[in-house]
Amino acid sequence: MTQLSAAQKSADAPRSPDSSKALYGGKGTRRITVRDITAAKERGEKWPMLTAYDAMTASVFDEAGIPVMLVGDSAGNCHLGYETTVPVTLDEMTMLSAAVVRGTSRALIVGDLPFGSYQEGPVQALRSATRLVKEAGVGAVKLEGGERSLAQTELLVQSGIPVMSHLGLTPQSVNTMGYRVQGRGEEAAHRLLNDAKAAQDAGAFAVVLELVPADLAAEVTRSLHIPTVGIGAGAECDAQVLVWTDMLGLTGGKMPRFVKQYADLRGVMAGAAKAFAQDVVGGAFPAEEHSVR
Ligand SMILES: Nc1nc(=O)c2c([nH]1)NC[C@@H]1CN(c3ccc(C(=O)N[C@@H](CCC(=O)O)C(=O)O)cc3)CN21
Ligand SMILES: CC(C)C(=O)C(=O)O
Ligand SMILES: [Mg+2]
Question: pTM for the complete prediction?
């Protein structure tokens, strides 16, 4: 069967709910694509996204069925020891993204374009995104800004690179914005809705809404035909994202209020490290079964 007739067949097929197609809990074995993401919004299906910065962690989430992973520039503060995401380089993002792609076979991998790798304009954005696609193998990239990143989004999409937009609190602008709730008040809300529509019109396949009032995020979600991915943006977004080290209690320090902690990995790891140290100091490790004769 030719590709054309296969496409025609699927276009003619009746739109009936098919749970085997679900992004989470679906039975697919191939890698998820941005077209699957679009179809999930048409089905009204919610989905989870987690960040990942290394192959091992990504493989755990892939096996758990997480359909979309973001190699976030939050790697800057969560993985590489910087204060913020601002110092992260494209070389670093390429290396981390390649590891996450290698560790997964099912999830759509989205690579975050770091600060300074797309702000100069569309050509710089295309050059940077191309590295993430060709060298790391990501299926999509993410960049911050709606209206202000319009030309970049358009050129990337025209060039065949799916773009996830990121609005609301945009951490790469911490030095001008701080880490504050965005979209409060009528004017700011209107600007955010406009940004979301601009991103959609430019061809973005999804839009992250970070730290915006829940009612506004709900309105944006209803107004767009592409999915919204919330982080601190209420329950009505189409998808939810959390930074994996926050969600698993590994980050340490004070968490933003939007974080729900599902485990205490920091406690588990510290306990194991202390037990190992005690065993070594006290001579309990290695035991006979860990030794060769
Ligand atoms: N570990 C980690 N988790 C994240 O969610 C995250 C990162 N790092 N790095 C990149 C960005 C930065 N993010 C941030 C940073 C700070 C706040 C924050 O301070 N929020 C406060 C105050 C918000 C307000 O009321 O204005 C909060 O309590 O939510 C939120 C999100 C989200 N991203
Ligand atoms: C918080 C998410 C959306 C992000 O951009 C990151 O992890 O870098
Ligand atoms: Mg980011």
Answer: 0.93
Average pLDDT over residues 209-225: 98
Distance of CA 62 from the midpoint of ligand 3 (Å):
20
Q: How far apart are CA 10 and CA 13, in angstroms?
A: 5
Same domain, residue pair 88 and 219: yes
Q: Point out the ligand 1 atom lying closest to the alpha carbon of residue 259.
A: 5
Q: Is the ipTM of this complex over 0.90?
A: yes
Instruction: List the one residue out of 153, 50, 56 whose CA is nearest residue 109.
Output: 50
CB-CB neighbours of 25 under 10 Å = 11
Instruction: Verify that 156 and 275 share a domain, yes or no.
Output: no
Any domain includes 284 = yes
Do 247 and 269 reside in the same domain of the chain?
A: no
Give the pLDDT confidence of 245-277 residue by residue, as tens digits.
Answer: 999 999 999 999 999 999 999 999 999 999 999
Q: 171 C-alpha vs ligand 1 centroid, how far in Å?
A: 8
**Local structure of residue 11 (DSSP, 8 states):** H
Print the domain residue range for 202.
Answer: 19-262
